[in-house]
Amino acid sequence: MTQPASTGLQIFRADYHHAAHASALVDLLDAYARDPAGGGQPLSDFSKKHLVQELAARPQAFSVLAFDGALPVGLVNCIEGFSTFACRPLINVHDVVVLASHRGQRVGEKMLAEVEVVARERGACKLTLEVLPGNTPAIRLYERIGFAGYQLDPALGHAQFLQKWLG
Asked: Half-sphere exposure (CA, 13 Å, Cβ side) for 66?
């Protein structure tokens, strides 16, 4: 779908080769990066310049955008992974962005519904994501639409998300 011309909220899959989609993706991700929930720092110039072309080069990546008329207001970036236990793809929801002006209007929920459509089309067994424990509005959204903490054996507890930077 191309950028909407009419007013009102529209949710659609991003076309990385469409200039307005590419610009919206970078601007929305930069807004998220600047937010405390995204780390509080702007995207690097390198990321701003190369992000869209790098996503486009990866068939396992896709993004969903939300526009209110011509204004980009939401973004979800996803990366397909693989569940060895299920022997099927999984979709990791990597970034969820909704501009402050549009929070509380179910924009995130609508974008994640489109993510689920794409995941089912790809034969995915599940969606995964990480969220900071202090981001209670996001946690409420994710729980409302069916996400839950990950565990295999309750005696071992919930999985933790860890990282190791490779300088």
From this structure: 26
Residue pair 123/86 in contact (Cβ under 8 Å)? The answer is no
Other C-beta atoms closer than 10 Å to the C-beta of 12 total 17
* Angle ∠(159,43,5) on CA atoms, nearest 5: 100
Which helix (H) or strand (E) segment holds residue 75: the answer is strand 71-83
H-assigned helices in the chain: 19-34, 45-56, 107-121, 136-144
pLDDT tens over the chain, length 167 residues: 444 444 699 999 999 999 999 999 999 999 999 999 899 999 999 999 999 999 999 999 999 999 999 999 999 999 999 999 999 999 999 999 999 999 999 999 999 999 999 999 999 999 999 999 999 999 999 999 999 998 888 899 888 888 889 98
Contact 125, 90 (CB under 8 A): yes
Neighbours of 120 (CB within 10 A): 10
Closest among 55, 77, 80 to 64, alpha carbons compared = 77
